[in-house]
Amino acid sequence: MDIIAIGECMIEMFCEGSLADATTFTKTFAGDTVNMLVAASRLGAKTGYVTHVGNDPFKPFLLRSWTEAGIDLTCVTPLDRPNGLYFISLLPGGEREFTYYRAGSAASGLSPDDIDPAYLTRAKIVYASGISQAISASSRAAVLKAFRIAHEHGLTVAYDPNLRLRLWPLDDAKAALDEVIPYVNLMFPSAPDETARLFGTEDAETVIRTLWGRGIKTVVVKQGAAGVLVGAGGTIRAVPAYTPGPVVDTSGAGDAFNGGFLHGLAFGLPPVEAARLGTIIAGLKVRGRGAIYSLPAKDEVERVFNQGRG
């Protein structure tokens, strides 16, 4: 396989207008790691997932959806807990409203016992995020074990801090980041807010040089509409955001970027070109609703990417 991710997927219910007034919701699924996997799979990457799925009425929908997305489910196992659920609405002016029901979810039951070294070493890239660590102490330990194994076998270990202070205190997030940094060789921090909290600076170039100093070879700082800054091979290059039209919903845009980037990397693109591919899939995604619901088709992404090359 090309990419294996460890993390959490939830049922997503989205609506127009406020949650209080909505009468109709669209059911789909989302979660930062699975968003990334679906984006990469849609471009042609062979992907796998390490997670638990809950034994509730949503289980068949999730298993069917992941299979249809092309994700290998060898290490997806059922657990007698509910699947996580969240509601999201898009308010006037582009603001979003979230309500989560994820405490004690099946995915939060991940533990080091769920990490199979033989499975991980089938991949080129192993990926997890700060959310994968934050959902429980056992899941945090699972991520650490997976990254150690991947590092020992010379795989690319990719990590997005994806700081969510609703899930845990900043000190815990920093400690979890510090414990995986020795094994990470590709990181996707976001500026300015996340980098200010985690690294004490809003400056993307400073973040890159700081992480280079800590042994991370490739650092890709996501800056929203300002594009990304790619630090690799001792050089720093800016890649502009791709903005083909009005922005409808930015949910999952950073995850879509990660999926495009990792797909490109797995298929031999240099980091700057992989970043350009990531900005294209993210830019096309934000035209519609839902973190996964609005991901573009492979043909459209490739057409835009190849036009830029010409």
Would you kindly provide a written description of the structure presented here, covering whatever features stand out?
The chain has 310 residues and is an alpha/beta fold. The protein has one domain (3-301): UDP-N-acetylmuramoyl-L-alanine:D-glutamate ligase. Helices cover 37% and strands 24% of the residues. The protein is built from eleven helices and 13 strands. The protein has helices spanning 32-42, 59-68, 117-120, 130-134, 137-152, 170-180, 193-199, 204-213, 253-266, 271-285, 298-309; strands spanning 3-6, 10-16, 26-30, 47-54, 71-79, 84-90, 96-101, 125-129, 156-160, 186-187, 218-222, 228-232, 235-239. The chain has a nine-stranded mixed sheet, sandwiched between helices. Helix 9 (253-266) packs antiparallel against helix 10. It is globular and about 50 Å long. It starts with a strand and ends with a helix.
Write a short abstract of this structure.
The protein is an alpha/beta fold and 310 residues long.
Protein topology:
Blueprint: E1 3-6, E2 10-16, E3 26-30, H1 32-42, E4 47-54, H2 59-68, E5 71-79, E6 84-90, E7 96-101, H3 117-120, E8 125-129, H4 130-134, H5 137-152, E9 156-160, H6 170-180, E10 186-187, H7 193-199, H8 204-213, E11 218-222, E12 228-232, E13 235-239, H9 253-266, H10 271-285, H11 298-309
Parallel strand pairs: 1-4, 1-8, 2-6, 4-5, 8-9, 9-10, 10-11
Antiparallel strand pairs: 2-3, 6-7, 11-12, 12-13
